[in-house]
Amino acid sequence: MAISAKGAARRKARVRKALKARAYGRPRLSVHRSDKNIYAQIIDDASGRTLAAASTLDKDVKAQVKNGSTAEAAITIGKLIAERGTKAGVSEVVFDRGAYIYHGRVKALADAAREGGLQF
């Protein structure tokens, strides 16, 4: 069953609204996945800045990962975003899954970020 763009936007807005209500000033770990790649950002919504970012398009990750659309690639990105986040001084975040269900690559990225040291 295909998901309409309107429905996805509505779900994304609903998830974001719930996150902001319980964020308590913590930065947001936002995940975007496409058919070929996965992206993660730690965003400080108060100042509107991106504190850390990682994706399968990074040169060092591209050399490690054969295909950017696998769970293994998501695990690599999860560990990398946790490392870059702690380097930027972030230890606690709220997880923004966007319009995606918490399953597969999104769940793999979240679990790897937790193992890497981020708390959410």
3D structure, described in words:
43% of the residues lie in helices and 19% in strands. By secondary structure, the chain is of the alpha+beta class. It has one domain: Nucleotidyltransferase, domain 5 (2-Layer Sandwich). Strands 3-2-1-4 form a 4-stranded mixed beta sheet. Strand 2 and strand 3 form a beta hairpin. Helix 3 packs parallel to helix 4. The longest helix has 18 residues. It is globular.
Question: Which features characterize this protein?
Answer:
120 residues, alpha+beta, Nucleotidyltransferase, domain 5, 4 helices, 4 strands, globular
Judged by helices, strands and strand pairing, the structural class is alpha+beta
Q: How many DSSP E strands?
A: 4
Q: How are the strands ordered across the major sheet?
A: 3-2-1-4
The shape is globular
| CATH-defined fold name | Nucleotidyltransferase, domain 5
* Residues in helix, %: 40-55%
Summarize it.
With 120 residues, the chain is of the alpha+beta class. The protein is 43% helix and 19% strand. The chain has helices at 5-22, 59-64, 71-87, 105-115, and strands at residues 28-33, 38-44, 49-55, 94-96.
How is the topology of this model organized?
Blueprint lengths: L4 H18 L5 E6 L4 E7 L4 E7 L3 H6 L6 H17 L6 E3 L8 H11 L5
Parallel strand pairs: 1-4
Antiparallel strand pairs: 1-2, 2-3
